[in-house]
């Protein structure tokens, strides 16, 4: 019986070896496993974003990073660095100088995706930016950024200031109950049906702030960060309805208290630093 086992084993091994020797040789892989050569732009991004804040910037086309049901396209490469320099100066440097060098390192999106043009919605509105799970911020209209145009810079920065507020809220929630009580009947899914001027007369800093309480908070904070103290006071001075002004001031207080209680940040210092950095971008 033992001899029979040995014969069977030897026969099996022989067949196995025979099968292996009859296999065709492995073909060369069609995958490109080489390391891409980094351009000067890639090296600059690594130095100023990835190495310092662990934030990856994606500006080349990646269909997995955008909504393929929209007409979207990557930014023109000459537009990438100027846009990122604005974000660096007015957003990153502002938080670093006021909240400390480690603040954004600890609480930050791990990826910024740049898109060249508009993200149009079926409602006729435009999506300026997206925050996805606190890990990725997508910025649209990169090709249209003009650092010498104050209104243009403010609109572009409003996107990342707004989306970053959502990321902070995911880390530490704001006082949603208090904010919701200030203008409880003003929220609507049809926020785009009225202008920002009308929204302000109803106690909202922008038309989009009317969409829900979370956007109301993010819009309040973002608008205060992209406008100087003088510009913000001019907005309030232009509102006829004094009750609306009072309600916006109550929302402002919720924002200021949140930053102080949650992160020990003086929000007015943050605003003033953002203004200083905005002026430097526009004037240089």
Question: What does it look like?
Answer:
This protein is mostly helical. The protein has two domains: 135 residues, 3-Layer(aba) Sandwich (Collagenase (Catalytic Domain)); 111 residues, Collagenase (Catalytic Domain) (3-Layer(aba) Sandwich), CATH 3.40.390. It is built from eleven helices and four strands. Strands 1-2-4-3 form a four-stranded mixed sheet, covered by helices on one side. It is globular, with a radius of gyration of 27 Å. The chain starts with a helix and ends with a helix.
Task: Compose a concise summary of this entry.
With 284 residues, this protein is mainly alpha-helical. It has helices at 2-22, 40-53, 77-99, 103-106, 150-171, 176-180, 196-201, 213-226, 229-237, 242-263, 267-283; strands at residues 56-58, 111-114, 129-132, 136-139.
**Cα-to-Cα separation, first versus last residue:** 93 Å
Judged by helices, strands and strand pairing, the structural class is mainly alpha
Please identify, by name, the CATH architecture of the largest domain. Answer: 3-Layer(aba) Sandwich
Mean pLDDT: 85
Rg computed from alpha carbons, rounded to a whole number of angstroms: 27 Å
Q: Note the quaternary state here.
A: single chain
**C-alpha geometry:** globular
The sequence of SSEs as H and E is HHEHHEEEHHHHHHH
- CATH top level of the largest domain is Alpha Beta
Unreliably modeled segments: 5-17
How is the biggest beta sheet arranged?
A: 4 strands, mixed
Strand order of the largest sheet: 1-2-4-3
């Amino acid at each position: 019986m033992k001899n029979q086992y040995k014969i069977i084993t030897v026969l099996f091994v022989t067949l196995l070896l025979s099968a292996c020797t009859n296999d065709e040789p492995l073909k060369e892989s069609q995958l490109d496993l080489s390391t891409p050569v980094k351009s000067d732009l890639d090296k600059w991004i690594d130095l100023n974003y990835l190495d310092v804040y662990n934030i990856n910037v994606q500006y080349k086309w990646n269909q997995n990073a955008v909504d393929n049901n929209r007409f979207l396209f990557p930014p023109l490469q000459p537009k990438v660095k100027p846009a990122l320099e604005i974000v660096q100066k007015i957003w990153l440097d502002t938080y670093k100088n006021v909240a400390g060098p480690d603040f954004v390192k600890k609480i930050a999106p791990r990826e910024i995706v740049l898109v060249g043009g508009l993200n149009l919605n079926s409602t006729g509105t435009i999506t300026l930016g997206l925050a996805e799970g606190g890990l990725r911020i997508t910025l649209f209209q990169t090709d249209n950024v003009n650092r010498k145009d104050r209104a243009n810079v403010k609109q572009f920065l409003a996107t990342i200031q707004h989306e970053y507020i959502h990321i902070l809220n995911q880390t530490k929630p704001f006082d949603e109950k208090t904010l919701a009580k200030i203008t409880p009947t003003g929220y609507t899914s049809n926020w785009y049906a009225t202008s920002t001027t009308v929204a302000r007369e109803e106690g909202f800093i922008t038309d989009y702030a009317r969409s829900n309480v979370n956007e109301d908070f993010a819009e309040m904070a973002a608008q205060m960060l992209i406008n100087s103290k003088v510009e913000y006071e001019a907005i309030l001075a232009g509102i006829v309805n004094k009750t609306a002004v009072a309600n916006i001031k109550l929302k402002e207080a919720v924002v200021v208290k949140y930053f102080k209680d949650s992160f020990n940040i003086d929000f007015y210092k943050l605003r003033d630093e953002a203004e200083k950095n905005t002026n430097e971008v526009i004037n240089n």
